Structure formats: C-alpha cells, structure tokens
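Two proteins were folded this term; both appear here.
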Amino acid sequence: MLAERRHQLILRALRSGGPAAVTDLSEQLGVSPATIRRDLLKLEEDGLLTRVHGGAVADEGDQPFAEVAEVRVAEKDAIAAHAAAMVADGQSVLLDIGTTAYRLARQLHGRRLTVITSNLVVYEELADDEGIELVLLGGMVRREYRSLVGFLTEDNLRQLHADWLFLGTSGVRPGGQVMDTTVVEVPVKRAMIKAGERVVLLADAQKFPGTGMAKVCGPEDLDAVVTNAPVDPATRSSLEEAGVEVVVAGKVKA
C-alpha cells in the first residue's frame, strides 16, 4: 500500500473512531508497527495529528464537508431531533455551516418555518420544500466546505433577525469558550450570534474539548447547548454559571 493511501486511512480511522494505538492501526492496515510510527511522525509534521503515548489523535482541522458528513451520524441525528423539537411552527431559524446543521435541516421537512442559512447543503436539502421560506445568504463560496463567507454574508446578517440560531463548533473549552478551526468562518458565526434571538450550540461529545484555535464566543453568548452525552464537570460548571442550559438529547434536561 502506498504511503499516501495509508495516511488517508489513518486519518479517517482517527477522525471517525477517536484516538488509536499503533498496534490497532497496524492490524487495520496490515503493515508493521514501525511503518505506522513513521506514518504518524510524518502526519504530525504536516500538522494533521498529534502523537500520544502508544498512538495518535487526529487534529480535525479544516476538513471537507463530505468527509465530516460521514462521521458520528447517529449522534448528530439525536442532537438534531432534539433541536428541531425546540422550534415552533411559524418561527424563523438561522442555521450555521457544518454537518450537524445539515442533519437538523433534514428534521425540518414539512414544517411551516423560515430558514436562513449560509450552508449550501442545507439550502439544497430544503430547496424543494414549499412549506419553508428559505433565505440563502450571499457571499463567497467555499466549495469543499459547502458554505458562504465574507463581508457580503456578514452584511446580509446585519439586515436579519431570527428566533433561533443553531450554531456549530469545532470545540468547547473547559471555560465554556466556543472555538473554531476555520478562521474565515468566525466573523460569519459572530454575525449570526448577533442576529439570533436565542442561540443554541449543537455539539456532540467529541467537541468537548474538541479542536480550534479561533474563539467564536464565550458562554455568555449562548442560551443552550444540546449534546449527545454528559458534559465534563468543568465545562458544565462554566456553562451553567453563565446561565446556559445544558441538554442531553433524548433527556428532558441534563
């Protein structure tokens, strides 16, 4: 197997399954542990993963939409179903970029709503649903990430107000700070927060603490967090001290 193909498979395994040991990766790929160690060293040098004792963990970075869309689908669907139930017919919903927002859009079919988004996959999902008033924000197209960004997107958002914003993230720090790996998306997310009456963060268990070098907002900008698993005590305390409701999908209240 060519090294490039091994690298792709290693990253896919780490991103879908979390941290993995050298021995496990060796068995999965059918190569020696020494080969895996060399691969991990190269991938770490390229900034794509972090080696830990006995293995590695992926640095998710700026992954293409199609790749992320295949990861943790059941968890995202559980979060999306709970989020959809929060919205009443006749309300307006602002949907962020990302795959969890897309899973939420799939839950909105047949509803009488206004949906505003810069997420091209959300637009494609809802375009034929005549019961939904669909507003697509303008901006520069990021083709691989299926989103619109830039000053045009931000200007559009300054003219709008939504009852709900459902926000995505790359990671949530123990202090409750919402982070993102994609710097160019951050100004759009901040403009969305200003346009939303109620701001709900959608974050599966892998987002605690997740990744991200750019701060989107603090916990004081959120009204609720919907996740699929209990949040670690430090993060939960920071969120609740800021008045944020933490909800585990499938339960009345976490």
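Next, the second protein.
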Amino acid sequence: MIDAVGNPQSLFILGGTSDIALATAEQYAAQRPLRIILAARPEEAELQEAAAERLRKTGSTVTTLSFEATDPDTHGDVVDKAFADGDIDVTLVAFGVQGDNEKGWTDPKAARLVAEVNYVAPISLGVHLANKLRKQGHGHIVMMASPAGERARRSNFVYGSSKAGADVFYTGLTYALADAGVKVTVVRPNFVKTKLTEGMKPAPMAQTPQQVGAAIIDAVRKGKESIWVPVQMRWVMTVLRHLPRAIFRRLPF
C-alpha cells in the first residue's frame, strides 16, 4: 500500500529502460527501499540489467521481465508475473517509440509500428492492469502521454495520433476505476532530454527526467488525474488548441 506520505512499497515499470521511469524509481527509493519490477524489450536486456543494478544500490529489491509491446498475446502473462509476488502499488506505463514522421505517413509498416507500440500495447496492458487492480482494490497507474496528442502538427502527427488515442483511453480509466479504489494519472510532459529524443533540438521549457519524475511523484501523492510538465504547458497547449487552422499550420513546428 502507498503510505501516508505517498510512498509506495512496490513499483512496476513497463518500459524498464525509460529514463523518466528510472528517475522516478530512484526518487521513490531515496525515501525508502521498495520492490521494483522492470519490464523491457528482449533486445534491451543489457540496458535493463544495468538499470536494475543501479536501482539495487538504493537497497531496493529489483526483478526483471522480458516484455514485447508488439505481441499483445503475451501482455497478460507479463502482468501476471509482475503481480505474482504481491500487490503492486504504482505502475508506470512508460514505453514508446518516436518514429520518423515522414516515413510514418508514407510507409504502412512504419505507421503500424508506431500505432502498435504507442497505442495498441498501452490499451492492451491497461485492460490487464485494470482487471488486476480492481481485484486488488487499490493501486495507481501512471501513463506517459504527450502534448503531441493535443493537436496534429505537420512535424509529428503520426506519433501524436498514437499518443492521443492512449491519452483518451487512460483518461477514461480514471473514471472507470474510481469506484474500485484505483487511481490513474495521465502525464503530458513537454520535450524531455532522454534517449527517445536524442539528436533532436530541445524545445522551449525542455525538462529533465528528474524533473518529470518529481512531478509524477507529486501527482501520485495528491491523486491527480492528469498533469502537464512543466505546468505552464497546459496554458500553452490551450492557446495552440484554439488557434484557427490557417494560423496554426503556419507555425514553425
């Protein structure tokens, strides 16, 4: 159970090499050691083990699972294994692919990969997690969304469309799971300096994984259903969302 000051005893990370998720785990573990389950793609096994060793240095107990986002038939088994040793207090859904936007709207395979990893897999896992947590009677899901899902932009509408779908699903889960004592937080961070964005030009108000991790911990503690990181992004996107199309499409992004 999450204690009175908001610290969990157990943490399940889907996307076990995510810079944001690992920064969140380290900040939680700085308060007290916890049981951590990392799930990542088979090809990331070395990176995941390095992340596990990093977290074990905090005194936490860390186990790893192999997880393939593009194989929905295995998702139930991954979730079952994560819950096999006891209740899970906080789950971070923190995996995704950026993809190449130009290839994404001209190459069906590239478009399908983005959709499968960023949209289909989070929904499939969300259903499995929701079923587990309803039976458990408590817990918190944190889903990493993106401002890119707020309005289609020429530069990243393939990625944005996948994030928009997942955002709506997990926002709906906040309502569906409320009576079961389960909370859901949708996180919409601005540009974050991570492996996913390596080589890209940082946007204004760019964040670090540590900043986003601190915001996630605060949101879980306060039971928030959605957050923007930084908070100013909420108002930026409110303005952009309501700009006339003729003006919006001329903006340099």
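The chain has a mean pLDDT of 89. Residues 108-136 form the longest helix (29 residues). These notes refer to the second protein only.
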